[in-house]
Prior knowledge:
The complex is a heterodimer of chains A (278) and B (186).
Chain A: H1 15-18, H2 21-37, H3 41-57, H4 62-86, H5 90-95, E1 100-102, E2 111-112, H6 113-127, H7 130-139, H8 142-151, H9 156-185, H10 196-227, H11 246-269
Antiparallel strand pairs in A: 1-2
Chain B: H1 2-28, E1 30-32, E2 39-41, H2 43-54, H3 56-75, H4 80-95, H5 97-100, H6 109-139, H7 143-175
Antiparallel strand pairs in B: 1-2
Helix pairs in contact in B: 1-2, 1-3, 2-3, 2-4, 2-7, 3-4, 4-6, 6-7
Amino acid sequence: MQHQLLIGYDDRHTFLNRLSGSTKLLSFVGLSVIGMMTFDTRYLLGIMVFSLILFRFSKIKYRDVSFVMSVIIGFSVLNLVMVYVFAPHYGVDIYGTEHLLLGSSNHYFNLTTEQLFYEFNLLLKYTFAVPLALIFLMTTNPSEFAASLNKIGISYRISYSVAIALRYIPDVQSDYRTISLAQQARGFEISKKAKFMTRVKGGIQIMLPLIFSSLDRIEVISQAMELRRFGKGKKRTWYMAQKFKRNDYLALLVVALLILLGIALFKVNGGRFWNPFK
Amino acid sequence: MQNQQSNSIRTVVATGIGAAVIFVLMKFVAIPTGIPNTQVNVSIGFLALLGAIFGPVAAGLAVFIGHALNDFVTYGSPWWTWVIVDGLIGVAFGLAKNRLKIANGALSTSKLVWFNIYQVVVNFVGWVLLAPTGDIIIYHEPATKVYVQGVTTWIIDSISVAIIGTILLVLYSRTRTQRGSLKKER
C-alpha cells in the first residue's frame, strides 16, 4: 500500500505536455474506440508501435509505471488463460480453419494456431491502449482535464463533478489510511493473512466512518459552492483551459487519419476480423 | 426554485465525492474471488446508499466516473461495457430513492425487503444480461467465459448490496429525523 497509487502528473516539458487536454482526450478516446472494435492484427500492432514511440517521446520513466505494468500483465494473462479454459476452440470458430499444434481435434483441450492467433489479438487489445492511457494520465494536468471535458461538449456541471472527484481522491485516500490505521490499532486485521470473513468485517469497519465523513463533506462543499453562486450561469470559464494551437490541429489530424484507416480496414477485411488463414 | 438550485449543486458535489469514494473503495477494499476480474465489490454497497440519498443522476454518474478512473489507473484503459453497466445500475439504485424516502427517517422492514428484491433483479439484468452481451458484441470474447464472469459478479454484488448496502441504509436512516416526529404542544 506504500506505492503511489494515482500515478502522477508532472510537467516534463515535452510536446505531449504542451498539447491541450482536449486534444489528448479526443485522441485517446478515438483510438481506444477504434482499437476496441477492430480485430485486425496489423492495425493493432501499428497502433501499439505508434503509442510506444509516443511513450518514448513523453520522457516517462519506466520505474514510475512499473507497478501499473505488472498489474496489467497479470490481468491480461489471467484473462487469456480463462478464455482458453472456457473456449479452447473459439479461434477455430472465428477463422473457420483448424491447424492443430498439440493434441487431436476431438480432445477438449487442444492447441490450434487459430486459438493462439485469436488470443494474441486479445492480448494486443488489452494492452495497446496502455501506453496511450499512461501518456494521457501523466502529461495532463487534472484541472485542465476537467476544463477539456467541458470544451468537448460535456456540460460544465458534469465536468465539475469530475474535477471534484480528481481533487478529492487524495483526500479520501488519506482519510481511508487514517481510519484503517486507527482500526488496525484497535485490533482489526485486514491484511492478506487474515481469514476471508475477518477481512470483510475489517473492510466494513473502515467503510462506515469513511462513508459517513464523506457524506458530511458533501454537505459542506455544496454549501460552500452555493455561497459562491455555483450553477447560476449557463456557462463557466476555466482557469486552466488552453486554446487550440497548430500542434493540436496537427495531432487531431493524425489521429483522424488513423481512425479512417481503421474504418477502411473494416471494408477491406469484410468485417472486424483480419483472417490470415484464408 | 431556490430548493431546486441547491439540489442541483448537491447532485454535482455528491457525484464528485461519490466518485472519489467509489474509486478509493474499489482500489483498496478489493477482495479477489478467484475468478479473474471479479472481486468482492464493497463499493456497490455504498452505491446503494448514494442512490437512495441523492438519486439516479448522482449515483449513475458517480459510479461511471469512479469505475472509469479506477480502470484507467489499474488496467490502462477502461473496460467500457462494464463501466457503462455499472453506471446503469447506479441509475437503477437511484430510482429507488422515491420509494425508500430515506430522508424521512427509519426504514421499515418491508421497504428493506422490497429494496433487496429490487437490487437482486437490477444486478441480474446488469451483470447477467447486459454486461456479457456487451462483451460478446464489442470485445468478441467467448460467451462461456463472460457469462461465468457475469454470473459470479451478479451473485457477489447482490450479496454485497444485501449486506453492506442494507447496513448502510439502516444506519443512515437512523441519523435522520423521523417525519412527523414533532408534535405541536397544546
